[in-house]
Amino acid sequence: MNKRYRAGANFERRVRKYFERDGFFVIRSAGSRGLVDLAVFGPSGQAIFIQCKRRGKLSNHEWRELETLGKRYDVCVFIARTDYQGRIVFDYVYLKPDVKAEAEGNGDEEPLPGEVARLWA
Hints:
The chain is α+β, with helices and mostly antiparallel strands. It is built from 4 helices and 5 strands.
């Protein structure tokens, strides 16, 4: 196992624990090299898809594919990355229209995945 793969896998596990601590059910797609690294399920079964990129770099093609995936399956899609201090940061790629309207109504321009999931509780 190479060093970059190991670092990426460790970051995916770290993000998974972020949600599991708050009681969410998380499925990790280990080693899949697919679009989605984590599928996070809220209490009512709603899903959030997460692509983990430690440095947050996605090509335009990857971004469009994630956005299309969110629209096709009507699910919110986020990128998890680290900031300059190593903290987990989330950027949304796609928010379902009802979730986006609710978040904007609450004054959140860019809600975090956990905040989005709590809208379902």
